[in-house]
Structures are given as C-alpha cells and as structure tokens.
Amino acid sequence: MGNDKKALILLVALLVWGIVTYIAFHNPPLGIAVGIGVAAATLVWMVLQQE
To answer: Do residues 37 and 23 touch, judged by C-beta distance below 8 A?
Structure first.
C-alpha cells in the first residue's frame, strides 16, 4: 500500500472520528449508536479487504 493511500485512509478515519465525537457530545445515545455502526462497517470493510 502506498503512502498516498495510507494518508487518505488516515484522513478519512480522523474525519469520521471527529464527526462521531461531535455527535456524541451533543446527543450521547445517538453518538454511541453511530460509533457502533462505524465500528461494524470498518470491521466488515477490513474483512473484505483481506479476501
């Protein structure tokens, strides 16, 4: 994996983390639900990338 792709993945991860954190501070139950959804989607994406 090239450095450009790693940098893009890091940028997207930080952006998503920031959005989830913002939502969690304003509405904790929704923030938890969105965080769990993002974690599940990330897990599925990682599993599909390995195949």
So the answer is: no
